[in-house]
Design a protein that fits this description.
Elements (H helix, E strand, L loop, with lengths): L6 E5 L13 E18 L10 E21 L3 H12 L3 E10 L5 E9 L12 H10 L1 E2 L2 E2 H15 L6 H16 L4 H5 L13 H11 L31
Antiparallel strand pairs: 1-3, 2-3, 2-4, 4-5, 6-7
Helix pairs in contact: 2-4, 3-4
Amino acid sequence: MMDEEGLWIFGYGSLCWNPGFEYKKSMTGYVKGFCRRFWQGNTTHRGTEDKPGRVVTLIEDKDEITYGRVFQIKGETALSYLKMRECTLGGYLTKFSTFYSRDGKSSFPVLIYIATNNNKHWMGEAPLQTIAMQILECEGPSGHNVEYLLRLADFMHRYVPEATDEHLFILEKIVRAHIKELNICINKLMGNRVFALELLEIDEELVTGQNDEENNDNAPVNVRPENSFEYISRVPTKLLRCLKP
């Protein structure tokens, strides 16, 4: 299954900010022919059996692209972890696609995890207001469903600012508006924790671009949304995290 260079895994949900497995390299980019939707239910991380949360899956659409983060892994440990996290507990299937780097200089095969409408956790399409309220009301062993949504949106704003994802960003705006209206403490929803992201020199263009924006008075203001939360820039010790942190 894996050659000497290792297997590449494409993450487009919580893997972007909390992979939970050991990997060799990581960079940002996209896959073609898919859009990201909060149509998959979740009872083991962001919801319960009585009140399932909503997490993202990829829906085939030939005219769309989905940005995310790719990981190069080597060995079976990470793959076994992902099989348990995504397939056994999450209801996802695996499929190969082609990953394209942000700088347009490279493309290569990647393994992606996709939930289909015939798995037991499938929730499917619904009005965005309905999805937003379900996210606002659900939490599970891994944290609040709001945390999942906002950390994913913030990752895109910060690390892939050119990404266009109307479904994700409208949901973010709706949920943030409800949080403000209901005077809910956002830090409590976010779990009062930070996650270290390790992109390193593997994505130098990204890191350089971010630094340039920080020193540029004309930088886009949407890179860091209001009421956001902090990522830390240090390099973490790459250990396997438990499924229910």
